[in-house]
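Researcher: Watch the backbone:
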Amino acid sequence: MAFHISFLMVLGTIYAYSTWSEQFIRMRTGPGPFPTWTADDLGFVYSMGIFGAFLTPLGGIIYDFAGPTTTYIVGLTMALAGFAGMVAIMQVAAIPDHQARYMMGLLYYLEEQGSSTLYMGIALDTLVHFPAGNVSLSMGLVALGYSLSSVAFSFIASMWECSVTTLILFLAAAMTAFTVVRVAVLGDISAAKWHPVSAGEEEPSLADVVRKPAFRGLILASFLGLSLCTSLLGFVKPLGDASGTNGAELAQATLVTNCIGRVGAGFLYDYCRHIPSQSALFIVIVGVAAGFALLVLQSSLSGSLVVLWAGCLCVTFPYGSSAPVSAAYIKDYFPASLNGTVLGLHHVAIAVGNFFFMSALGPTETRTAEGFKKPLQGALLCSMMACFSILYDFMLSRSKLS
């Protein structure tokens, strides 16, 4: 686990994008490689990176059907190719900045696709080889390591005052070193245990899994519930500023609460495994809905800042808790041979839900609290729909058992 967390500390650096992306435009010693870029250009590159970071089914499918070693090699190859291309583009002055925007976006997507593939290798290694009795805590630590990477990367970028090229080379070297150690030492050890099919037993297909109520419940919980948490994290600072509190402090508090939820819930749920993971997931989504209810109350009734803080923290703690709980849910309700694919689809549902929510209900005016009423009310409605969906699937599965 110490090795896994160390490895993950170089994979989730996209969340620190704001701390170093300005170097594309300007550096401490002069103009950057793309001096005419605007915030829109930086946002486009970031969006492409986020798309790659959440497109995790690729890593899950490779792990399920080709094994761990292939997963790590493919992930590292994509990440290094993306990094190499980004450094090359920054060194070529003849490329116009408006063309470089799309080239850098595509290369950053490729790099983050590689990083997410490496992440899936680590997550599924943990799911397969760590004790079943500690699945929630171990997967919570994996999620924590990925989140903490942005903190470490921000510290390195600010303390060492590195150029963006130096930071990229540092990440590429670290990814390579960790991957070589993982592949050289373990390889595909115990890979046969990943597909435990008894003699005469037919291995379930992805089509069989998709038809299960448990799969529908997980995807709807991700699409209608957990995706809203990522949306809130995207506009929590202006929400705090518009409501009369320090938005930066509120944003930092939500990130810390998210990290606490990842480990705290994992540790707690391992000692409460008598509670079905379907019920635990329902509790997580109810917590998200309760948080948005507090935010709607504060927004509609001009409530106190205490209610605002409580609502934001009530949303982000369950969001952090969802990482270990969803891992236990997948391990309980789906065949081991397809755990990676299901975990990847779970991540994609969060990303797609965030995209549609922000496109349809995202705040368009962020200077006053009025601009956040519509997204908060929409988030409350969607999270309540997610609660009813899980409850319906729970009742459906109970009736089938009866």
